[in-house]
């Protein structure tokens, strides 16, 4: 039986054959029920497994074709919002194997093999994911350059932005602008981390129905006037307000991650000061074009007194959003805090759906599978966030009756209530069978939820087969 949510997400599928459309729908349902299992273990028997691999091996089945119906559904959800945060980010998909490498996959850093997934996920201001609106794959097939650091820097200076990997950030912004023009009643805000600190992005035309953007700067840019640089100029303005931020801890799993992050970090609370200013950035020189100066708004979030041994928090947020009042500035900071949700999405994709462990021999077969699991990861995160932000929703908005009833009976050892439980109640119950331990003022995370949802599907299957109303046939 195909899950109703999978039917909805694949309703507009047009892969080129109705049988392929139906197979995509069925695979989304099957793999969504058991995302951490291998494809043979998730499928119901040898025939379904063989059909799954034939689907991924079909030339008509591509990454874009599988995601297209999900794009359509995401745009429908986006059109119902007043504000949509379009968060861009890039994640490495590492498919390095001790045995033969995946055919077609490029290099990540010389010793590792894989490719980059760059995607733009739509969120509400409360952090509820609406789905993917655009995504692309970047595959470094040319190998690693052995030129000197100075030669690499010179080549980067001479290469047009259109020929660089960083062009993905401008492409994402242009996709966001198309959405903003299509639905002018929705305020679209395109967000990016410090990788998106690209002057060409700041200089992009803003148009009649502009998409706003919000980028965390990674460099202290020069200003057009004789004033000091960006950060020093904003520090001359008065503090608008203080706020407390929860800085989440992070632990590196590999030496490569440790080098990238430079340090491990414990979770802590940081008291920061918030300032804001409007400045005109001086255009950097480019070999192939002359860029104009750009007027932008800047919000500085800075921790003046970090604990001993800790690096102080400092966010330089460059944006086109208004900053005329403290409330507008506060909104800029709140919007940027939603950006971390896409990192949770990637973590769900890798740890929950285990996309890097799929044993495809050819990259062209792996990409449609990645697209399926990207939709599965979105739904897992969406259920988690809805349980927090919309706790009083009827749980049957998300879960089938057999799903919540089976979990209720398994946890409480009693008959399910006649009145449908609230969504937050069921999210907590489902997470509890995934290992979540109830504590005061705590909420389940995506990890316990994705484990719990897999067990929920198994319980629902048993409920359908043996529970009340099951029709048993004798042979």
Write a brief caption for the model.
By secondary structure, the protein is of the alpha+beta class. Helix content is 40%, strand content 17%.
Explain this structure.
The relative contact order is 0.11. The chain is of the alpha+beta class. It has helices at residues 4-9, 18-33, 39-42, 46-57, 63-79, 149-158, 167-182, 199-202, 230-235, 255-261, 326-337, 341-352, 363-389, 401-412, 423-432, 446-466, and strands spanning 83-94, 106-107, 113-123, 129-138, 187-192, 212-216, 241-247, 268-281, 294-302, 314-319. Strand 2 (106-107) and strand 3 (113-123) form a beta hairpin. Strands 1, 2, 3, 4, 5, 6, 7, 8, 9 and 10 form a ten-stranded mixed β-sheet that branches.
Question: Could you tell me the number of beta strands?
Answer: 10
Largest sheet properties: 10 strands, mixed
What's the shape? globular
Instruction: Supply the number of helical segments.
Output: 16
- CA distance, first residue to last residue: 22 Å
Strand-residue fraction? 15-25%
Instruction: Please bin the fraction of helical residues.
Output: 40-55%
Determine Rg (CA atoms, Å).
24 Å
| Helix-strand makeup class | alpha+beta
Q: Which regions are unreliable across 5 or more consecutive residues at pLDDT < 50?
A: 252-263
Quaternary class: single chain
The overall pLDDT, averaged over residues, is: 89
Question: What series of H and E elements makes up the topology?
Answer: HHHHHEEEEHHEHEHEHEEEHHHHHH
Question: Which features characterize this protein?
Answer:
475 residues; alpha+beta; 10-stranded mixed beta sheet
